[in-house]
Specification:
Elements (H helix, E strand, L loop, with lengths): L2 E5 L11 H6 L2 H11 L10 E3 L1 H7 L3 E6 L14 H17 L5 H5 L4 H4 L3 E5 L3 H13 L2 E6 L5 H8 L4 E4 L4 H15 L2 E2 L10 H20 L8 E5 L4 H14 L5 E7 L4 H8 L23 H10 E7 L1 H13 L15 H10 L2 H6 L7 E6 L6 H9 L2
Parallel strand pairs: 3-11, 4-5, 4-7, 5-6, 8-9, 8-11, 9-10
Antiparallel strand pairs: 1-10, 2-3
Helix pairs in contact: 2-10, 4-7, 4-10, 7-8, 10-11, 11-13, 14-15, 14-17
The structure holds pyridoxal-5'-phosphate.
Length: 394
Amino acid sequence: VAFIATLNDALSNAALPPQEAERAMPEAGCRSAVDDLSRWPVYAQTRLADLPGLAARLGIARLWVKDEGARRPLSSFKALGAAYALGEHIRDQIEAASGERPGYDAIWAGKHRAEAAKIHVSAASDGNHGRSLAWGAQALGAKCTVYLPHGVSDARADAIAEFGSTVIHVDGNYEDAIARVTSDSARDGMVMLQDTSFPGYVDHCRRIMQGYTLLAEEIMDAIPQGTPPTHLFVQIGCGGLAAAVAMASWRRYGAARPRLIAIEPSVADSLRRSIESGSAEIIAGEHPTIMIGMACGEVSMLAWDVLKTATHSVVAIDDDAAARAMRLAARGVDGDPTIEMGETGAAGLGALMAALDDAEAKAKLELGPDSRVVLLNTEAAIDRAAYDRILAAA
Ligand SMILES: Cc1ncc(COP(=O)(O)O)c(C=O)c1O
């Protein structure tokens, strides 16, 4: 398994996040997202699976997997992002027109569908973000158009169209799809709700990231007292998820926060390169990988403001590592609960196994018999045929 681990020289061990990170993800916004989402009609916590059998086999003390594959209603943590930001945008519009901000509950109870129907939202997505936006738009009564880059399977495209959204295929990579949705939205009066940020585009992205805070809070609440995690492995696409998890864990654990290990596909390791060079790097061209949710050539600006100091190290893996992890999680080890992990969902476990197989990487990541590791399964089998094919391959 091809594999690279890079340490972050700019890692901060301070008790509090630096100001730059606080500005990117202010605490008040994270708190209000958690409050709102926990009163969501479809809200249910996802399990934090404890895998003692696999931990013993891997030679670590504990292994917990946060199973976002079970996140209602979309089988991915992305349900917490775009759909939340859309609800907030509808509240903004009503407040601007009437001077009164409606309650979050009122929006989700369908009391403002007439106002929502005037809004047309858009996004570029490699699948799950677009699906969250499409689902939210259907639930709240807005129109939605999603732009898909090359490499997104028909099954993933259908999973967006099924919520009544228009799907547009862009002849190019994820960054090309962002460029296209940006210009089409400006031309056609669509409101772009994007999970990445860049100069001049931060507010909607920040809200999406704040929505992800909920899953981090759930993890930390479920970890038994006295055994805090030592390592947190998080998948990186544009980095929004990792930034949200990093900020929540920094605020909860202070200087004793777990090491944040960022996972990327080796064909799209823009965070790794940025950490190496000290400034945000872009990887042009196609990023062919089965870990489609991580096929991003550029780190989100807000996420970079957090990850540049929050990240302990970056691990870049090949598709084989994710496929191997999918098969192992589906089988379970020594009576552990089994977990359905989609291709991107399995990347954290793939990276952990690859790191433990490599003495140098294991030392760099400070992994050993006392390690208590948290991984995220960020999606279940969204493309069922692809999942079955990978599981059947020995
Ligand atoms: C299943 C899955 N996991 C992880 C990620 C990465 O999240 P982010 O782009 O916020 O870094 C994505 C992004 O699309 C995803 O779909």
